[in-house]
Amino acid sequence: MVRTPRFAAEDFVEAAIGLVAEGGPSAATMASIARAVGAPTGSLYHRFDSRAAVMGAMWAALLDELAGILAPPLAAGQPARAALALADWAAARPRPARALLLADLDTVLDAPPEGGTAAAIDAAEARIETAFDACAARLGIAAEDAAARNRLRFLVIDAPVAALRPALKAGRTPGPGERRLIEELATLLPTAPGIEEDAA
What we know:
The structure is a single chain. The protein is mainly α. It has one domain: Tetracycline Repressor, domain 2. It has helices spanning 9-23, 30-37, 41-47, 51-75, 79-92, 94-101, 105-108, 115-138, 146-169, 176-186.
C-alpha cells in the first residue's frame, strides 16, 4: 500500500500566507510555518529546502490567484469589472489579499526565486500583462501610448489596491465602503466598443 503524505506542500504554503497576513513576512519562519500546520520542521524541509523556497511558492500561489481574478475581465475588455473583481476578492479572501497587497517580492524572499518557482511567478505575471495588453487594445489604446496605458493600469490596479490597503493594514476585511470607492474610480475608465460592463 502506498503511504499518503500527511502534510502536503499546499498546507505549508497556506500556513505561510496566514502568517504573512497576520504578522508580515518576518513572521513566516520555517519553525512557525511548520508549527502552524502542526507538522515537524523536518516535514517542511522535506517539501521545501529553504525558507526562500516556501516563500517563493507562496508568492507564486498568490500571484496565480490574482491572475485568475484579473485576467478574464481584462482579456474581455472589461476594466471596470476587473477593478471591482479585485475589491470583491479582497473582501472574500482578506488573508491572501493582505499577504499579497501589503508586501512585495523583495521583502518576502531571502533570495531570488529559482527553477519552477521563478517560472510560476513569471507565468502569473505574464498572464496579467497579456490580459492587460488585450484590454488596452480593445479599448483602442495604442501600444506606444504610454500615458493612456499608465492611466488604465492606475485605475484598474494601482488605485484599487491603494483603496484596499488601509483596511487590510488595520486588520479589517474590506467592505462596502472600499467597494464604493473603487466603483467611483471605475467610472473614470473607458469602455470598449460593443462591450457592456456590469459592475454589480
